[in-house]
Amino acid sequence: MTTEPFRAAPVSAAIEVIEPRPSLDYYLVLAQHGDRGPADGPEGIVVEEFRRHHDFSTTGLDSAGWTPGTGWWSSASLSRGMRTDPDVLVRVLPTWRREAESVYRTLGGGHLPDETVLRTYFRDHQPIASAPPLRLGPAQPPAGFHERRVYRVLFAKDLRAEQVTDLQAAWQAPGDGTRASVASGHLDRGDDRFAWDLRRVGHTLAWALDVTVLLRTANAEAVGPTLSDLTNVLREHGLIPVTTERFS
């Protein structure tokens, strides 16, 4: 059983096609052995789901954890620690559902319940403060587009240098040092256009992904799946999403 962050398909492939996928996020929690740090294997799992406004900005987080012997338990405090406490961060690894199923079975849980059942264990909702979108950048979209949006997805944990290099190569757009961006990319989905920059921010939140959306279509149906895909790419590299804010 691996305890390394799961390895994705090529990053560019991960954001080319809108596909249905489980909407919950899964994490492995490594065992803690005193001052020796995390042990080699997981001791449990955490399952999470962000609540969102219609524009995909975050309003809150639901979560549940499971460990052998205690079963399912409410874990809002653990979810906060996963994003703010260095001692917890080092023990938490993002993963896919299939790996969570394997760990759950190996630890004696049997068959991992489906996502409808898992949601019934969400008993400790964590609200995430939000505000009306702030204006960041020009108010008017470029010619040919009817709306311009800017989102920021904040992440905890850190990226190794080789992971940044991997993202730069996969997104095929090197970072622009004048904008403090270490990796960037762009994508057209239908008639809508997406461009993004990954950068370090602050001292407690390690990374931010800034996504500019230019909309030609009226229903904006590609926004949510594209933000999810980009977020999942960075989860695949070990980062933990904190919130999605909208700036315009």
From TrEMBL:
It comes from the Bacteria. This is Uncharacterized protein. It comes from Micromonospora jinlongensis. The lineage of its organism: Bacteria, Bacillati, Actinomycetota, Actinomycetes, Micromonosporales.
